Amino acid sequence: MKAVSFEKNLQSNTYPGRGIMLGRTADGSKAVITYFIMGRSENSRNRIFVQDGQGIRTQAFDESKLVDPSLIIYAPVRVLGNKTIVTNGDQTDTIYDLMNQQLTFEQSLRTRKFEPDKPNYTPRISGIIKIHEGQMNMAISILKSDDGNPESSLRFTYSYENPLPGKGRFIHTYMGDGNPLPSYEGEPTLVEVGNDDIDTYTDKVWNSLNEENKVSLFVRYIDIATGQATSRIVNKNK
Q1: Does the domain spanning 6-235 belong to CATH 3.60.20.20?
Q2: FRET pair for 18, CA 20 to 30 Å: which of 59, 101, 171, 175?
Q3: CB burial string 47-77: b at 16+ within 10 A, e below
């Protein structure tokens, strides 16, 4: 698989939905976590990311306009020891709680399935990065319906041991806009990761997302040698 430009990939899709990119800077020194949310409805667009301990959570920008919080208010990022979990729903808490009880990332997600938002049945996408003794490992999961049929669940987990410098893996909920929204297909896309500082990288990603549909962006760099994390949050609503 040939790596593609992350920015160009984003620019080519007006509505990828929610997306996770995990990777490693080209110099090999840092793990990169990227998570963004987009929205078409007023309820979905009425959100911001806020810091919550070592992670983040979504929050209504205008509480008076919040209609249904069930699938839009959650903690996308949580940290469990040397592991950082990122997902597009409340399965973040499932992974955190069950891994804390010694289950694996994949075993934890066996207890969940795609979102119950008929007719889209939005996939649940999840990622995890582990930093230990100067080494980095990561995994990405997608739980989806079988071609929009809620009677069948498809479960895929992709594990990456010692990811190569300058490479990342990108997965998102939708192939593009539509009604119903078409679920992501295939394994996570191989994308290029450079050596930009976190602010430059954050600006590039934010500016590549569709202006009308983008809502919020989270970026974290983790120094693989020390485990030190640096994060950025960008919200369209201010």
Answers
A1: yes
A2: 101
A3: bbbeeeeebbbbbbbeeeebeeeeebebbbb
Give dist(CA 35, CA 218) in Å, integer.
5
Q: Which residue has the tokens 């920015």?
A: 7
Q: How many CB atoms lie within 10 A of CB 8?
A: 11
CA distances from residue 177 to 5, 17, 55, 88, 116 in whole angstroms, order as listed: 21, 9, 29, 18, 19
Reduce the secondary structure of 53-106 to three states and give it as a string.
CCEEEEEECCHHHCCCCCCCCCCCEEEECCEEEEECCCHHHHHHHHHCCCCCHH
Average pLDDT across the chain, whole number: 97
Q: Distance (Å, rounded) from C-alpha 217 to C-alpha 233?
A: 6
The predicted pLDDT at position 1 comes to 85
Task: Say if residues 215 and 38 touch (Cβ distance below 8 Å).
Answer: yes
| pLDDT tens digits for range 203-236 | 999 999 999 999 999 999 999 999 999 999 999 9
Nearest C-alpha neighbor of 50 from the set 61, 62, 38, 63: 61
Non-local CB neighbours of 7 within 8 Å, separated by 6+ positions:
204, 205, 208
Q: For 4-58, what is each residue's pLDDT tens digit?
A: 999 999 999 999 999 999 999 999 999 999 999 999 999 999 999 999 999 999 9
Cα angle at 87 between 90 and 77, to 5 degrees?
85
Q: In what order do the strands lie in the sheet with 189-192?
A: 189-192, 167-172, 19-24, 30-38, 214-223, 229-235
